[in-house]
Structure formats: C-alpha cells, structure tokens
Design goal:
The structure is a homodimer. By secondary structure, chain A is of the alpha+beta class. Chain A has ten helices and twelve strands. The first copy, chain A, folds into two domains: about 1-155, 2-Layer Sandwich (Ribosomal Protein S5, domain 2), CATH 3.30.230.10; about 160-280, GHMP kinase, C-terminal domain (Alpha-Beta Plaits, 2-Layer Sandwich), CATH 3.30.70.890. In chain A, strand 3, helix 1 (about 50-70) and strand 4 (about 75-80) form a beta-alpha-beta unit. Chain A is globular, with a radius of gyration of 19 Å.
C-alpha cells in the first residue's frame, strides 16, 4: 500500500498559525508486510540515514499500529521524499500525517480525514500545516478542546505556485523566540482584518485583492530579516505579477502565487537572480493525503 | 427620490473592526426639491428634533451636493427611521451612507457602490458597519491607503437574526477606553484564527461551526460586563439553538443568528425573560443601500 502527503505553505501572510494551503509536491511511502524490518529512503533526506523524520515516522506508526491491532507489525518501508526538510514546506506535518495514515492502512482500519487530522494534532500543535496536508486546498483552521475545526476551499487549476527554496533554513525554534510576546491593538486588528479578507478572497476567487489582503504585521518582516535576500525575492515576485508573495511557514521558503501564464517568467527571474536557491513551479493540490 | 440603508451588526465575534453583516431593518429618506428647506422625522429619533444624526445627514448631504453641482440645493427631507440609535446597529453609518447617496441622487450623478463606500470612510474610519450598509450581506473589510477593500457573501433566506435591544446604550467612546491597548500573542492569534474561520464558515455555509468560530478574546466579555444581563441573553440564545450569538458592534444590542424555524421560540424566550428589552426577528439583507 502507498500513502502520499502533499507539501504545505502555512502561516500564510497575516494568517499566523491558522491559514495554510497544499502544494502538489508529495512525499510517498510504500509499506509492505515483511519478515524483517527495513527502511529505504530516496529523495530528500536520503543522504542522512539517521534522519529524525524517519525515526518520528516509525515511532508514530508503531504507536498507532499497536493500538489498532494489539501487536507490533513487521514492515518494509520505502520512502520517496520530495518535500525539502526544514524549509517551511510542511515536511514534519507530512511525516506525522503519513505515519498515522500508514498505520491505519497497514492495520486495515478505515479512518476519516477529520479523525486523522485530530490524531495528527497530538504531534503538531499548530493546525495550519497538518490541515491542508490532510484535506488539500486552502484551509482556515483553529484548535479548540484539542480538536481542529477547519474549512476548505479548492484552488482552481489556472493558478500556480512558484516557490523559492533558499540554500539554508531559518530555525523555527530560533525564529519563534524573535517574535514579540504581544501586539499593539492596532496590529492585532490589522492581522484579524487581513486574514479574514485573505480567506474571503480565496472563497470569492478575487485573486487580485490578495495583494492587499496578504499583508502581515505579526511575523513576516521579523523573520525575513534573518535572510535578507527574501526581501529581494518578494520584490521580484511583485514585479512579475505575483498575486501573493509571503513567507512559507516560518521560512526559509518563499511562497508566490501567480496566474498560470506568469509562472515561467517568474521562475526564470528567480533562477537568474538567485542561482544558489531552488525555484519550483508547482500546481496546487486539492486532495491532501491519498491512500492507494 | 428615496434612499434606503439597512441596519448592520459589526465587530462580529472575533472580527473586531472588520466583519459585519446587513439586516433588513431600514432607514428611508425621501428627498424632494422644494422652495424651502424642511425636515420631518418619523420613527427612531422623531422625539428629538435637534438630533445629532440629522444634522450630520444635512451637513454631509450639503457638502456633497455642493461639490457635485456647484450650488446649494433646497430640498424637503422626510426621514422614516427604523434603526435604533446608539445601540450598535449601525445607525450612524446608515446616516452617513444615506446622506452621500442622497446627494448623488439629488444631483443626478451616478455613483458606484465602491465609490460610495470610500466616500463614507471619510466620516466613519472603521469599515465594518459602512461596508455591509453599502453592499448588503456578510462582509470582510480592511482599510489601506484610505480605501476600503472588502469581499461580500450573500446570506441565505433560511437564516434569521433575532436581535435583542436593551433599554440603555453602552457608550462607544467609554467602551473603547476600557479595552486593552495590546493583546498577548496567543490572544491575537486566537482572534486571527477565529475571524478567518468565521469568514470561511459563511462562505461554505457551514453554520454549525460558527458556534466555535464566533468566539472572541478581544472585546466582547469586557463590554458585556458593562451590561451583565447580556451574559444571560447569550446563554438563552445558545440554549435555544443559536448558531452565533455575539455583541452587535460595541453593543448594547446582542445579535443572534438562527435557522428560520428556531426564530419564534427564541424571540418568545427573550420577550419573557427581558420584558423591558426589545427583541426583533429580522431577515438578513443582501442589497445594502437602495436608490429608488
């Protein structure tokens, strides 16, 4: 059996810890019953056999498989990883979601996406990556009483993401410590308004107004200062018609949304200006986790 | 000619200064060219001939009419007011919007709703009442560079508002001074998430989830403490199946949204428990300002 989970861009603009969307760049894991335990990795993380992500996967998988079946199964796991590690593209959430989904699939137990999402919340307390990883599309999500409450909007195929992946990470832990402990009322209201408008723009497919709605006063500029090239990334994106150009998660990846016909030109501009960064043109994903 | 403008409930739940919706409770003004200036008022405010609201109307009307025509017109104004004054139902915004709309109508100059909204912003700096007053429906709105950027969702006819209008106001000015100057990051993120989710619930018509999404940590409880009966109003509403039960504007009115079939029962419960308050069952409005 195969489980595949998409990359995600969260913390979208003003939507700190709440807005996220799903990108068609997937990690796959193939699971086969076996007489001995084995793990193979291709793609991202293949060069690091003691990779934390795979330990995390195996631990979560074992917990759930044992809970569901009462025994410890023996499996062969083949990982094909496309989501870059520690770049703000939801690689940890993908590991968590795929591990739980794999345990249910291996145990032959059906699980709803809503339940899967609430199980993932035990391992990742912010809902903005795990929600689109499970559901696909654009999502708003909050946590109340240890449950995720979320709403989804499908993203049309005439839009593309052009993501810029720098050659170094911004540490999430370090990044959080640099953020203020409180916000002035005006700043708080600014983000409340803009995050709500951003949400409404997605639902109404009013893409042009995202250029206003995606503005943030909580975290983005503070984090971008740790990798100042990102200001130039954003400037280039805006110049090339980006509808939205924001930090992905807590970085270091920059997420840019464009009309399909503008994608190639923006991609070339990024490759020319930042030859050491990776730039990818991606479709949006509307499926989330897939069992097959 | 006649201009009519709906009442509005703004500051909706977590959507401080940004989320608002329109109620089918309308102030109308009939304007006729005349050989002498005269004003008559029926309904709300009729017992106060020096009412500030009408001075405000006449001043705004005159400013715009003079700007549009180069002269001071002479008109007879008949006001038929249904929006209660100083109760958080957008009576000031209705005056502002109707005055500007009346000036354009009297001058014979067409004006788009978007332009009307930006003109109204000169007189009312928060967008959450003027936007639904102009546009109708549920709206998210922000202000950037002295312009309102907003998105609208029509509200279906199977939903009703049951508003409870206390016999006394909460002063907006006083009410604002009791609010904190800043919010802890957790509270700020809470409202960003919930306001975004509330917006998505309206667009997805996921009414049941509003019970979670409409929770607020910025202003509601602080303001309700100035009129503690409102906690009992909210409790009654929730008991009777309200989908959403929040302060309207900065109060003192409480806004409750219910399925059509639950409206009468909730209305009776309010009338029985709070005989000195007014309780109204209202349709939502999706038209905003109407020129006729």
């Amino acid at each position: 059996m195969t489980i595949s989970v998409p990359a995600t861009s969260a913390n979208l603009g003003p939507g700190f810890d709440t807005l996220g969307l799903s990108l068609n760049l997937r990690n796959r894991v193939h699971i086969h019953p076996s007489s001995f335990f084995s793990v193979s990795i291709r793609g991202e993380g293949a060069d690091n056999p003691r990779l934390k992500g795979n330990n995390l996967f195996i631990n979560i998988f074992n917990d759930h498989y044992r809970y569901l079946t009462g025994k410890k199964g023996i499996f062969r796991f083949r990982f094909i990883n496309k989501i870059p590690l520690s770049r703000g593209l939801g690689s940890s959430s993908a590991v968590i979601v795929s591990a739980i989904a794999s345990a249910y699939a291996a145990a032959g137990v059906n699980v709803s996406k809503r339940k899967l999402l609430n199980l993932a919340l035990h391992y990742e307390h912010h809902p903005d990556n795990i929600t689109p990883a499970v559901m696909g599309g654009f999502n708003t999500a909050v946590v109340e009483n240890r449950r995720v409450y979320s709403q989804k909007k499908r993203i049309p195929g005439y839009l593309k993401a052009v993501v810029v992946i720098p050659d170094k990470p911004i540490s999430t832990a370090h990044s959080r410590t640099t953020l203020p402990k409180s916000y002035r009322k005006e700043e708080a209201i600014y983000n409340v308004g803009h995050a709500s408008l951003l949400t409404a723009c997605f639902f109404n497919e009013s893409w042009e107004m995202l250029r206003i709605a995606a503005r943030d006063r909580f975290h983005q500029a503070i984090r971008m200062k740790m990798l100042p090239e990102l200001f130039e990334v954003q400037r280039l994106a805006v110049e090339h018609g980006a509808l939205m150009s924001t930090l992905s998660g807590s970085g270091s990846t920059f997420f840019n949304m464009v009309y399909r016909e503008d994608a190639a030109k923006l991609h070339r501009a990024f490759e020319k200006r930042f030859p050491s960064f990776r730039a990818l043109i991606l479709d949006f994903d509307n499926d989330g986790v897939i069992f097959s």
